[in-house]
Structures
1.
Amino acid sequence: MISQKAKYALRALIALARSQGALVTAEIAQAQAIPRKFLEQILLDMKRVGLVQSRRGKFGGYALLKPAEEITFGQVLRLIDGPIAPLPCLSRIAYRRCDDCGEEESCEIRRVFARVAESARAVLDETTIADAMAEPGLLDDLGQSRAVAAAH
């Protein structure tokens, strides 16, 4: 499950992509029903890693620093929530051996969840903010065609 903070971050990025210009924090917070102070923290986190930029002054606000086609859901989730892994022994960036596991190679639970994690990563790392903004049918087709390609 993703955190509320990650959902807010994705909503904010989609709002910025749709605006194609600078939006002030208050506009995004009101339009997306996100608490303003919380949104400011999220936008600062995204600014630190180069996803958004801020501008001061009369025409200031936040804007995407990268095109929406280059920002993936996986990037945002890792930034906000950390590793995308159901078990610590499956994490790519925060690997930790499970305390109660004898051998990872023979762990039945790990094998099943490894498939789950790979499937989730494939969808999240290939789905961009621009994809999410596309018509609902296009996103469904995108996910199905990528799943079919990955299976072959």
Note: The beta strands are 52-55, 61-64.
2.
Amino acid sequence: MDETTKAVIERIAIRYDQPTKIPSGDLATVFYDCFQLSPSELARLAADAIGDLDHDTFDMAIGLAYSGILFASAVAGGRKVAILQKDGNFFGPELKGRRIVIVDDVVYSGSRIREAARKVQTAGGTVVGFVCIIDRSSGALRGANSPLGAPLWGAFQADME
């Protein structure tokens, strides 16, 4: 990770003096407010997260409402984009027969992206990976043996403290 990307991540980090409940329900001393990211920063982080993938690895990115929507557009890089809405329905192009990456801003336990993967499969899509800005899974979801059944790519790894 280059110095500019490190500065971007540091800018969105909100630090607390003591463990504080964050939106995931976890206690942490750092919260990453990804809503502060500009479009160019989202593009930079998307390149960091999936920069080594072949262009034909996936056909579509699905952003999880609300936090993953803008990042999904950056990850898609001109490919199709859909949204998995809070009500559990998809908005956007047909998923059937598509190779899909599921996109969220921050991943903790993987429960949100696992549920999204089940919905994608039910709709006829094939999940080929997961992408996030911040991976806080403490390594549990990374690598070839990921319990997600497909790789997790993150622009920045920050274990829960």
Note: The chain is about 25% helix and 30% strand.
